[in-house]
Design a protein that fits this description.
The chain is mainly alpha-helical and 161 residues long. The chain contains five helices and no strands.
């Protein structure tokens, strides 16, 4: 039996280096959460990892959506809605955890793994194909100020987590 929940494969690459690196980090965080549950590290350790995963996901979504705007991706609104729906579900889960109405479980991990796998293989790959075909991005000059600020604050975490 594999020691990890989600085995990364280059088949998940969407063709945008930063996005692919962030996806690998999301997979690593999911695997850390899996290990914490499997090894009975306790609810606080699991919650800390879940919170890191949620924060990193928000940052990742912000970057993806900015690249979609820059490249005039026609599927931006639908893709953004998918992101918002997941964030709402995670926020609701965090509220339930805070109120003792839920616990972090293997079912949660399975849901996150399936969502991420499907989202990368379908929605993100469609965007990656569009971006590679239609964008000659020489820098970050067109990115929103919010993304620039977030990237500057979080860059160390993205690279060294």
């Amino acid at each position: 039996m594999s020691q990890v929940l989600f085995e990364w494969s280059d088949s998940f690459n969407v063709g945008i280096q930063e996005i692919d690196e962030q996806h690998r980090t999301l997979v690593e965080l999911l695997n850390q959460l899996h290990a914490a549950i499997r090894d009975h590290k306790g609810s606080q350790a699991c919650r800390t990892i879940l919170d890191q995963l949620a924060e990193y996901t928000r940052t990742h979504f912000l970057l993806e959506e900015s690249l979609m705007r820059v490249s005039h991706y026609p599927g931006l609104e639908l893709h953004k809605q998918q992101h918002e729906d997941l964030i709402a579900q995670v926020n609701a889960l965090q509220d339930k955890l805070d109120n003792g109405q839920a616990s972090i479980s293997f079912e949660l991990l399975h849901f996150l793994q399936v969502w991420l796998t499907k989202h990368i293989n379908e929605s993100d790959k469609r965007f990656g194909n569009h971006f590679v075909r239609n964008t000659d991005l020489k820098g970050y000059s067109e990115w929103s100020e919010e993304v620039k600020t977030t990237m500057k604050k979080k860059k160390w975490w993205w690279k060294f987590w």
